[in-house]
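Pipeline run #58 for the internal structure catalog. This entry was flagged by the ingest filter as a single-chain record with no existing model, so it goes straight to prediction. Upstream metadata was stripped on purpose; only the residue string is passed forward. Reviewer on rotation: M.T. Logging verbosity set to normal.
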Amino acid sequence: MTDALWDEAPSAGPDAVPGGLTDPGWLVCADPDSVLALLGSASEPEEQRGATVYRASLDVHRHLTAAERRFVLALDAARLDEEDLAAQFAAVAVPGAEPLGWEPVWVRGSQADSRLMWTLIGHQGQVIAVASAVVAGRSVAVTGSRDGTVRVWDLATGREACPSLYCRTDARSALTVEVDRIATATLDGREVGLLLSKLAGEQRLLLLDLATGSLTGECVRVVAVAELAGRSVVLTLENNRTLRLWNVATGEELGSSVSAQVLAGSHGYPAAVRVELSGAVRTWDLAGNELDSAPVDADEQAYDPQAVAVVVDGRPVACAFDALDIDHLHDGDTAVALLGDLAAACGHRSGAPVRVSQFVVVAGRPATLFREYGGSLRVWDRVAGSRPGTQGWVVTTDELHGQSLRLPAEAPGEDSWCWQLADPAPAVAVDAERSAARVLDTCVVAGRTLRLTVDADHVVRVRDTAAGAEVGEQPFPCHEDRIRAGVLAEVNGQLRVVTAALDRGVRLWEVAGGRQVNGPFKGHTGHVWDVATAIVNGQPVAVTASADHTVRVWELGKRRVRRRTEIRGHKDVVLAAAMTTIQGQPAVVTAGADKALRAWNLATGIPYGGCIAAEVSLLATAELDGRTVAVTAAPDAMLRRWDLDTGKELGQAVAGPAGRILALATARVDGRDVAVTGSSDGTAQRWDLATGQPLGQPLTGHTSRLTALATATVDGRALAVTGSWDKTVRLWDLATGRQLGDLLTGHTDWVTAVTTTTLNGHPIAVTAGRDGTIRTWSLPDGRPYAEPLSCPAGPVRWLATTVHGTSTHLITTNGTKTVSVRDLATSAELAPPLRCPAPVQSALAAPDGTLVLCFGPEIAVLSAIDGQASARVAAADYDSARDADRPGRDVTVAARVL
């Protein structure tokens, strides 16, 4: 399936829709196009539930198989608090596929939002600009990305409305044009996108035909406007140094642009122009008089032979050339000189370089000039947007939000090119009582011109420009980071503000009361660069462009549906996770980039206590004097211990080994609880958790970074398994600090992950390398236990294992959105890949077969459907499994992958 033009949604009659949007089996197995055809018609609550779940990760599951889509829909139902629906999706029988095996139980920190209408995918880079328009009765969004493409989307279907535009790549620099800003307008009844593009610091304004997706013209740089021989003319300079002279009244080009050679005099200015016309070489002086031969001067030199001249009625009127030693340049390395009659008409000295401008006056009114690729010149009246008398063609704007768009304008006091795709007023509105505020949007509501501004403290205000007063009861603080864009919109008859910021947030605000409406829109995983609004099927929507390569469409009039009180989760990516027991109950502990450490009841998802403020990069757990303790390592190599029952730090932070701590685990050694760290200097160190002091000397042997570490207790003996960038694996006796046997070789690249488990009842270590292989080693002797397994998806970052009867299941993730479940003995895939909405940062397994997946800021817990699973934990242990006094060959594990 492709994202090509989709003019009409496929039909889906009742006969083809057994249960429609209320049938989980049909939603899993039906062709996505058939489901998309029904999404907009959902009216009953049950239909809306199904439609909301299907839309939540449509960008993820649209192109998956039914077996893979089953898990995505089950997970999204849980993310939206639809637990019963999650169970129904997980239980769907897909022909030819194995049962799912796991059922989502709860999700915390969910980024799923019931107001999401579409997630538009296709850009391969950050999406930094968006605008909206109405084309042939359809609402569309125009988006520009740093991947060098511009795309036009049909907002009713979520499909591309016309072929993508691929911006040109400069042959000399190999740089691709980037579109920084986008606006929309109407040109002679045609909807066009105005693309502000940039290449190596040079800005251009291009016109995109929104119906066809093709470029139709570009804004020209103006050299001169004058009356010449009774005609109103404009001289323009194009990016390839081509000069053109236009008749403004007709839009037709006058004269011809030809290659020339410019001869310079002693003062660095042109002295004569030599061109070839009709096969003959002819020379003119600067007054336009033809010479029999070029003037002779000892200091005379020829400028760039690629210079050009405009010839009208057999006489040159202007030339463009390499500036060389001319002091005051106005357009890069190009100087433009007016000659003869044209110089006199503009009040310039013949041959003197003149300023190139974007601001011109035509018939007494400020205007911007566009050249269509068909050859005509068009005039944009920047004041009224209407035809200025008989002065040629005029571009007018769509009033999408009651706003008449005017562009471009030069910022006051700036000589460089400065385009403002909004209001001709200054981009900074100065208030005597507060610091400068940036203008985000301007619109006309009930005859009043309103301006939306944001100040340096992220406070948004709406001001009536005529009255000079603020609108609404009070200004409102919006975001925790810089606000990049904002628009005014009418929602359900009320004036609203939509803001987008670098904190990944999109918010809707009530102007009258300064209150946020329905909480932030969740889903983007990167900075939100731009926002626009449109009307789709009679309802207002917001369209946001993000650094996560996606464009999202949100229903502004729809309430965010939560079936119960929302439990606060992490605000940023979960960086580390570990299993433990708290108050006798299985629990999972997580640490996020939001500098928060949290603990959750594994069965219910209810948090234990509040949030612990801590910057954590690595995490493990232990039991210390009857207390459940989290051991954390920070980026500054400081080790800390936290009482998870009270949320308090135990003792003082301890400085770790030299270099960064890259791996962390815990173990019980001779009745003492210890932590084991692996560092960037290649050493491992044991730490007494009771005192926080190091135990013995560092464990040395690795010759590069120690990046993977696990512990195990085999026959009452505490072991550590370490993996390094030196491509080797080593076994250590934690009681003595000695290496057991020789180093374990076989990996041909960095060792990236280590865990321990049992296979056929025998304790083993499992290691993964950047070479794309997984290897097993017998414990405690270190012999290779079985043939290596391949990792087709790439290097593994996390390993977890669960034991189903006599079969050991291996759960792996490589930092993408996919989790793989395989039989460790045979490498056979036991279930279709589990796809998540964001890259998976960690995967853990509990002794009862429960899986914990952390992706983005979200934590998802999956229970084994058959209820027969048992497990050994990867990344931390249950304390009962860590007890060295248990009879038999017990294995406890802890693993962390850098």
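catalog note: DSSP finds eight helices and 70 strands in the chain.
catalog note: The two ends are 37 Å apart (CA to CA).
status: ready for reviewer M.T.
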